């Protein structure tokens, strides 16, 4: 092995995907916890998920759905817990962060990191066979006022933020929020590449990756993922260039491998890293790489604040 930092693997287990292509995609809290354990055993150090209706899979934001997952993960793993925010269609910031703040004062259940998407984009899917978009009016709206409000809450509660960027302009926007003092100087930059059916995002190419990398402040870490596309080629570049990787059924069904579960996808990236001569980070190593305090220190700080 070389002297590079160990590779952080984030499992992105369900997002807003459905089971039509892969029945292993989890909906219920029990299924999500099962996937977290599988991912952790395979080498993941961060676990990201969305609250879903246990039967239909439709997006749901009830605090109880998140609490059950958080409790299950804490009981069985030492993963860094990274839930989504409440869906952007909810205009009230308190609705988006309710499940985060519900556990913020609990030294055991407190989440480790929270994601912020730094801009809006068109999310109509492209049909390459019909050469038409499936819709023409779908927009993921994420105003800078919303960003400001969410980041103020996270700053107040001392939460670690991952900066999710779908293009270079969103990275530049995020750096403006750093200058404002709302986005911490220590953040994990998550580069979102997109597949053929989502042309609004960055193409999974070396020039796109280089453009993202050029905007990363010195000393910060970055991670590459691919929404509605296969991340494997990007993963090889990220491993080689010192970045980190996100993978999971929430982003892509990976039917070329059959019907894999999330743990099997994480294992593929871990094996790729070992083949390329790079170690895979444990959750505790990931904390150090991301310059987070050790979990014991977080617990002690919360306990001292409570008293």
UniProtKB/TrEMBL annotation:
Transmembrane segments: none annotated. Gene3D superfamilies: Aldolase class I. One of its GO terms (molecular function) is 3-keto-5-aminohexanoate cleavage activity. The keyword Isomerase does not apply. Keywords: Metal-binding, Transferase, Zinc. InterPro entries: Aldolase_TIM, BKACE, rSAM_sf. The keyword Glycosyltransferase does not apply. Its cofactor is Zn(2+). Pfam families: BKACE (PF05853). It comes from the Bacteria. This is 3-keto-5-aminohexanoate cleavage protein. It comes from Nostoc minutum NIES-26.
